[in-house]
Amino acid sequence: MMKKKPLLIVLILVQICLLSGCWSKKELDEISILSGVGIDVGEEKQLRLTMQVILHREMKIESQSGKRGGEEKPTQNVVVEGNSLIDANRNYILQTGRRGYWSHINVLIIGEELAKKGISPILDVLERDQEVRRRTYLLVAKGNAKEILDAETIDLEIIQAFNISDMVKLSESNGKNVMVDLHRYFLRASKNFNNAFMTGIGIIDKGCTNNLELMDTAIFNENKLVGWFDNIETRGLLWVLGEIQSCIIEVQYPLEKGLYVYIDNLRASSSIKPVIRDNTLEKLIVNIASEGKVAESNTEVDLSKGDIIKKLEEDTAKVIEEEVYKAIEKGKELEVDIFTFDEAINRENPKLWKEIEDYWLDIFPSVPVEVNVDMTIRRTGLITKSNE
To answer: Where is each Spore germination GerAC-like C-terminal domain found (predicted)?
Structure first.
């Protein structure tokens, strides 16, 4: 009997540990589950938060019937102000009697004016808070964030924040938008002088409906918005970073006819080679390798001929080069290095990097950059000539 007592005690302790698993439970009637949050400059205080709350009753009705209850929306946007993110969060409790639950937030949208003033205090709170998921997407509104969450859109997704999240996920395949979550932003900003970027979003008026659209890329220096990359410059940035997944490249061929061939990029990679002589950085070389296929053609060119394919590869490479040069030129204009050139220099010559690190952003605009693109077209499709 005495031998069984230690085993019994161990079993009791294990059960006690298991029974304590609900100590941190959160009752639905005590919290507001948030799907998205917009942060703008406040009118009376420092910040104005638009908190998109999922209405539990609506969600329950929808889950049981597969439809929304009546014409009611399943979310409600609650606006609160505060002198900090934490202060606004506490004011939300005073206003609603519930605590905002951030663990289910899909998107965090920052207003343009606030982004220009700087978002370091906000990022500090988000980085410390364990409740906020690192996979939450970050976006910058063209205008204010409240308008984005309030916008009437085509009802492809009932909950607006979830709709925006889906837009971000799907847009990466077009090569014109970036997909940035909290984890990626923190990682990039910590390595690159707080030079980082976020997806831009705005409202496009179409008739009676305000449609949301991902547009441009917000560029940050020291956590302040300093400018925007357009879609072409964004794709140039992604070519340099080797983050192009799939995109359509429009190639004018033959030039004299003004007709086009559309190349579907299948895969791409990139590398950066600093050229250093006598402990001096002479230039940076960006090498890009891409493989694609002919997706569409409105020319009468016979794509089965080897010389035609070679010419098409050269013309496609030129298009990619132009996109990359535009991105680099814009980066130099804004005096930001979001291309990871700094990391390449550090890998190549750590000693030189230590010497120029403190003033790299000052000398970067004057450093020559050479872009080389190796384009290979693997497939031309089932037909070799257009039916026109």
So the answer is: 216-381
